[in-house]
Design goal:
Oligomer: single chain
Distance between the termini: 57 Å
Order of helices and strands: EEEEEEEEE
Mean pLDDT: 79
Strand order of the largest sheet: 3-9-5-6-8
Structural class: mainly beta
Number of strands: 9
Low-confidence stretches: 8-14
Helix content: under 10%
Shape: elongated
Amino acid sequence: MATRHCATFGNGLPFVYFERQGDADAVITFPEKNESGVGRPVDPLVYTIDDLTGTYNSGSTEFVLSVDAGTSIANGPQMRVSYDFDGDGSFDRVETFAYFPADSANGSEGYTHLQGLDSERGDFDNFAGGSIRV
């Protein structure tokens, strides 16, 4: 009688699931690049807005992103917002928001600033010919 084995294992990411039917050995091959991208963007999408002028209103960074990992478990974004308030090419404030572990369910999910800050450095200021990089 053939046996069916299912297993799930992993320590964080990547997540591995396999099924085996019969008595043959189960062989799992991992891709060569199996590193976590949390905290270090892998193939990031970068957008920059230049030549900004404005007065700081004592608010905080807010964003809403619609994300969908498709059927790929463990795909997810991490947002970093960098501010150059005076346009000198140096970032005066950098905020990195917590990684959002998107699910593999059908449809998009909302990743927002409410996920919380993972790290931040620098203070807000007025813009005088500055830029924002997301």
